[in-house]
Design brief:
CATH class of the largest domain: Mainly Beta
Radius of gyration: 25 Å
Shape: elongated
Strand content: over 45%
Order of helices and strands: EEEEEEEEEEEEEEEEEEEEEEEEE
CATH architecture of the largest domain: Beta Barrel
Distance between the termini: 78 Å
Number of domains: 2
Number of helices: 0
Helix content: under 10%
CATH topology of the largest domain: Lipocalin
Structural class: mainly beta
Low-confidence stretches: none
Mean pLDDT: 92
Number of strands: 25
């Protein structure tokens, strides 16, 4: 239970556990209590008004407006503003991937969801890995990599062993050899090099004789060009 500084009982001692939460970013500066009865959790305020019913396996506060609730071994996003649980999809794991997206996983598949409302999946649960690269997305399917846009339109076919964007171009590996593609899927350097490493302003290409040439972002040689 909970008592105040004068030993007045605020919450009767009837819960198995009480965890105090204050949502600092919430302008109302409301104080909440995550309470446990048996194996289930809920949320109440200091006047013992129910915020979230005590029926969830876990409650994770992720922002001032959203929580992740677990029920039937699946997680769902809960909106404090609308007081609604999003049951359109469930997931098993999540991480706040960036300021814009959260990565959510179900089984061996994952996708991204926008952090502004946690309501709509960017893609279906179909990829083994998804990562944002500038305004495009590197995806992994059947252990191969490709590039799609936010509408899941394939930009670079999903057939490469490795793939990432550097200098507004695509460095990829195919049949254990490296090459460079344009974002329009045009071959700029053939897939015949032992290694290619991209940096923010240059690209190092290991030649067949294992010497390294350095190129700028326009793929003009700037070091070790002979």
């Amino acid at each position: 239970g909970i008592i105040d500084s004068e030993n007045n009982v605020l919450i009767q001692a009837k819960y198995d556990n009480i965890e105090y939460k204050r949502l600092i970013e919430n302008p109302k500066k409301e104080n909440f209590l995550i309470v446990k009865e048996g194996d289930l959790y809920g949320m109440i305020d200091l006047s013992e008004k129910e915020i979230i019913p005590i029926k969830y396996q876990n409650i994770e506060i992720i922002t001032a407006d959203f929580a992740v609730l677990t029920i039937n071994n699946l997680k769902h996003f809960y909106n404090f503003r609308t007081k609604k649980l999003n049951t359109n999809f469930g997931f098993e794991k999540f991480d706040m991937y960036s300021r814009q997206f959260t990565r959510i996983k179900k089984g061996d598949k994952e996708t991204l969801i926008l952090n502004d409302d946690f309501s709509n999946l960017l893609f279906p649960f179909m990829y083994e890995d998804v990562s944002q690269n500038e305004n495009l997305f590197v995806v992994k399917l059947n252990s191969k990599y490709g590039l799609v846009d936010k509408n899941n339109k394939v930009i670079i076919p999903i057939l490469y062993e490795q793939l990432y964007i550097s200098c507004n171009k695509v460095i990829a590996q195919l049949n254990n050899k490296y090459g460079i593609l344009s974002l329009g899927n045009k071959v700029l350097m053939p897939f015949e090099y032992p290694n290619i490493v991209g940096y923010s302003e240059k690209t190092e290409v290991t030649q067949k004789d294992f010497k390294t040439k350095t190129y700028n972002c326009d793929l003009l040689c700037i070091e070790n060009c002979n």
